[in-house]
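Give me C-alpha cells for this 215-residue protein.
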Amino acid sequence: MDKDSVLNRIHELGVIGIFRVDNPEDCAKAMDALREGGLHALEVTLTTPNAIQVVHEARKRYGDETILGVGTVLDAKTAERAIKMGAQIIVSPSVHKEIIDVCRKNDVVSCPGAFTATEVVQAWRWGADLVKIFPISQVGPGYIEALRGPLPQVKYVPTGGVDVQNAGAYIKAGAFCLGVGGGLVSKKAIAAGRFDLLTQAAREILKAVRDAREA
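Here you go.
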C-alpha cells in the first residue's frame, strides 16, 4: 500500500487508535478489539514494551487490512527500524527533519507533533504528511479552526484528550483525522479483561466521526 493509499484510508476512518499499554500481550488483544469495532488505523507508541515488534507481528496478522504506525519516535534510526518492521506511519510528539526525511525516502506517512503555528509551518515545509497538534486538550477544537484559517493546506491530527464526546467538534473544526488514546484504549478496561469495552468505544467514536461529517 503506497503512502497516498494510507493517507486516504486514514482520512476515510477519521481516527487513529493510540496504544500505550503495559505489556505486548495486552496490546495485541487491544488491537484486535479495536479492529473488531471497525477501527483499522492503529499506532503503538514506544512507551509500550517491544512496540516495534508488536507492530511487526500485527503486520503479519493483519496484512494491508489495517494501517499500522509507531509513535513517540524521536530519531531517524528508530524510524528506519520501525519502517523496516512494517510501520506505515511514523508519529512523533515533536518536529524532527531527519525523521520526516526518512519517511519521505521510504514512502511512509510522517506525522510530527507541533503546537504553535511556527512549528506547524516548519513541519509542513520539511514535507510532513500529517501534523499532530498535541496536546490539543489544552486549547480545544477552536484551535484547529484558527490554524486552518492561514494554513488550510495542512492535514491536522488533534491528539491528547480526544474522546467520543468531543470527536465531532474536532472533525467539524477541520481535523483530517483524530489521534485517540485513553478515550479508546482504557487501561482500566484492559486490566479487568474487558476488551469488549474497547470494541464498543471504537464503534462509538467512528460513529461520532461519521455523524459529524454528514452534518
